[in-house]
Automatic annotation (TrEMBL):
Membrane-spanning intervals of the chain: 23-43, 93-113, 125-144, 150-168, 180-205, 211-235, 247-272, 278-296, 308-332, 377-395, 402-435, 521-543
Residues annotated as domain STT3/PglB/AglB core: 581-640
Catalytic reaction(s) noted: a di-trans,poly-cis-dolichyl diphosphooligosaccharide + L-asparaginyl-[protein] = N(4)-(oligosaccharide-(1->4)-N-acetyl-beta-D-glucosaminyl-(1->4)-N-acetyl-beta-D-glucosaminyl)-L-asparaginyl-[protein] + a di-trans,poly-cis-dolichyl diphosphate + H(+)
EC code: 2.4.99.18
Compartmental location: Endomembrane system
Region (Disordered): 459-505, 752-785
Protein name in the entry: dolichyl-diphosphooligosaccharide--protein glycotransferase
Amino acid sequence: MAAPETSTAAVPTLYTNNTLRNAFGGVLSFFILLLIGVMAFSIRLFSVIKYESVIHEFDPYFNYRVTQFLAKNGIYEFWNWFDDRTWYPLGRVIGGTVYPGLTLTAGTIWWLLNSLNIPLSVETVCVFTAPIFSAFASWATFLLTKEVKGTGAGLTAAALLAMVPSYISRSVAGSYDNEAVAIFALIFTFYLYIKTLNTGSLFYATLNSIAYFYMVCSWGGYTFIINLIPMHVLLCIVTGRFSSRLYIAYAPLVVLGTLLAALVPVVGFNAVMTSEHFASFLVFIILHVVAFVYYIKGILSPKMFKVAVTLVVSVGLAVCCAVIAVLIALVASSPTKGWSGRSLSLLDPTYASKYIPIIASVSEHQPPTWPSYFMDINVLAFLVPAGIIACFSPLSDSSSFVVLYIATSVYFSGVMVRLMLVFAPAACITSGIALSQSFDVFTRSIKFQLPGISSNTEVDAAETSSATAEAQNDAVKTEKSEETSKNRPSKKSKKKEKEEKPSTKAKAEKRLLALPLDSSVISLLLLILLGAFYVVHCVWAAAEAYSAPSIVLTSRSHDGLHVFDDFREAYGWLRHNTDVDDKVASWWDYGYQTTAMANRTVIVDNNTWNNTHIATVGTAMSSPEKAAWEIFHSLDVKYVLVVFGGLVGYPSDDINKFLWMVRIGGGVFPHIKEPDYLRDGQYRIDSQATPTMLNCLMYKLSYYRFVETDGKGFDRVRQTEIGKKHFKLTHFEEVFTTHHWMVRIYKLKPPKNRIRGKTKKSKSKTSSTSSRGKRSGSGKKNPWQ
């Protein structure tokens, strides 16, 4: 009689304790997440604190210029904007060739702030967009990891992502590039997919399609999502994990997501016409075949089911074959079989170097070295394998997705260093799982073995709460049928014995799994020390390695800090000393900056959409002075800008990039041959350099008057004296050289006026040789050949 009353009286107290514990844990998790967001934002402000609030790198200047246009002229003018200051004389339709997600996001933030009477400039909003979205990305990582392995793993993964150097490198204050918002969109899309997979909610499936649409608007890397998710769906089908939740998670994404993606002008019909998207459609068909098989299995007898399965599989295979045949027919006419050049370079790492040198010439498209992994993810490289193992215990649909994500991202990061950015969230998620479960094992082992704590452990409380939950249900039944419970006390006692036995057995198993006390304490301290090393490395990377803007360079020597502001000095000179309609030629790396900071028309820029136009500039730089003058003059160029680092030791100058100009130019104009610029296969600029190298325009514009700096002409980047020291320019004149000689600007000399006497002589000579000229077919020489 007394036993049921005691257990019933104890239930509310235990239930209240668990409720308070959960509420306190939820509040604590919220404040930890808030602090993680503050940390993610703050650690990216070193560039502003140490230098100034300025846009970094090259591509961000184009994004900043587009955002300025959007804020000034509105959304409709943005979609219809034809930019005549780029790719002269072709121009560029901005609204149809740019991923608008970043621009629209920053423009919306600027509009909201100004609506609230917070008068921030467009530049300030652009500078701080990336740090803000890094905090959002950390919170999205928490949500994703929580769906996979719980709150503890989610908080750990969020903290790791907030300060991982690989992500910091593309999200510091001033790094106004597409990846600033795209990584958040990537992680959030994966979270909504896992959330839909766990709940089967059509609401989350719709949100998933909208998040995918935002990702498509933000970055071309959206193809990673639309290929990774179908791979996971196919994996679940093959391993016998098909469910209605899987169908709800995938089918709306393909249909609604593809329709929304086609609304983005830069994507358009590529969402259904390119090979990057075909895998999603094929898996979509397979999913429906499998779903139909499971449906008829529930309504037919086993005998009829075998017949129906044979029919369904036959029809499904026929449809798949027909779809594959149509896809093959669509892509057969394309030399790349419907794949973009960047996608082919990921599938075949040698493809770009063989066929598309413009892609291979970009430094961020090169494969990473082993030290770069330890620089960008540090100790996470050792924790990732442990996290993968933890995902298999137990293996669920969500944990299998994380394993697939880390496997594919590791491969792609090994092909292209830029995709370390995609690998970083996966590394943080798996490392967070590994750290969380390791802390759980070690702390549980310590609790079991410390005196006076083992009896009050959380494990015992959890087991008691599960037991009391059943007792509470029995208490409710007892209140409804009190007389029945009084007449059968023996059954209650038997049930109580059955509840106590599993609890005792579970505690015994937990104790057997506990590690020795010494090992647990030492391992826990080592994990804390490992985390401390990670924090120190991340802060150093944020403060020193990735905070310096490329537009302003610094170096330290025995006499202090030196600042090199040559780029802004050169662009300022162009803005104030040239006409508005003047055209400036340079290598494509500096096109965005020239247009945004100097407000002058450029021939090529960083969009690299027209390989022939870039090859034309490369050919001019690789040609002798007279031939180069003819090419630039035919393009209406008035100024030529070159970047030279030989005086101060700046390695990313045009001389080091020159061989790529030769390769890209030679790919379109065959008379440019790379061996002509090499001596025994070596690239040299000293006295052993080839005559073709010593007489090309790039060499002359870089080393003109260079011998006057030290009397020797010693190049600090190449660590040698130049081969040709004393020469004059006949078709170009130097108009400006920055303080540290890092940027040099030359003006094309006007064509010489014809002298009347010489004209008569030339006419007489021409008349005497006209018959020979006609027979030989000689005419005006094409300067590009």
